[in-house]
Amino acid sequence: MSSSYPTGGFGAGFPTEGIWQAFEQLRSTFEKRAGSRVARGDVRAAVLALLAEQPMHGYQIIREIEERSGGTWKPSAGSVYPTLQLLADEGLISAEESNGRKTFSLTDAGRAAVDEAGGAAPWDPQSSGDGSGTGYSALPKAGFELAQAAAQVGRTGTPEQVQQAVAALDETRRRLYAILAQD
């Protein structure tokens, strides 16, 4: 079977190294941005969800959010501590100082607020509200899986399949920008 592409090694004839570098850059960009693209109300919801489980201090809350979001969201102290103060001012949490640390816990009003909200934490896939299963890590994961599929087509596809894949990726890119344009 003859091919119009040179032989002699993995990905010969295709610029696969450049493709992989571009995909790694894309993945890296998603990882860096995922934590900063969080709606303001999500810090509040996350704090309440965690305190519904057990009392915690501020640093524990930051660490737990990062861990439960799979590392895609690490809120800053500058967003968590003002949220804690606001929740305390609203009477939803109380603080108890011990060994120089404030430990926060829900008040009865706070428990009622958590129950009323339905209990879904912002890092849970179900928290998108539409049942679609999208969470903070869904977009980077989908992008990386798309990149893997494109690279596989580039490595093993026929020239016609590569052309079809390029057309599909171009269409996907246009559709993603159209989503942003819907504001």
Q: What would a concise description of this structure say?
A:
With 183 residues, the chain is mostly helical.
CATH class of the largest domain: Mainly Alpha
Main sheet attributes: strand count, strand direction, barrel closure: 2 strands, antiparallel
Individual helix count = 7
Tally of strands: 2
Please estimate the helix content. Answer: 55-70%
Compute the gyration radius: what is it?
23 Å
Low-confidence stretches: 1-12, 33-37, 128-134
* Tally of structural domains: 2
| Strand portion | 5-15%
SSE layout:
Elements: H1 16-34, H2 40-53, H3 58-68, H4 77-89, E1 93-98, E2 101-106, H5 108-117, H6 138-156, H7 159-180
Antiparallel strand pairs: 1-2
Helix pairs in contact: 1-6, 2-5, 3-4
Characteristic key phrases:
183 residues, mainly alpha, Arc Repressor Mutant, subunit A, 2 domains, two-stranded antiparallel sheet, 2 strands, elongated, disordered N terminus
Walk me through the structure.
The chain has 183 residues and is mainly α. The chain has 2 domains: 16-33 and 139-180; 36-135, Arc Repressor Mutant, subunit A. Helix content is 59%, strand content 7%. It has 7 helices and 2 strands; from the N terminus they run H-H-H-H-E-E-H-H-H. It has helices at 16-34, 40-53, 58-68, 77-89, 108-117, 138-156, 159-180, and strands at residues 93-98, 101-106. It has a two-stranded antiparallel sheet with strand order 1-2. The protein is elongated. The N and C termini lie far apart (52 Å).
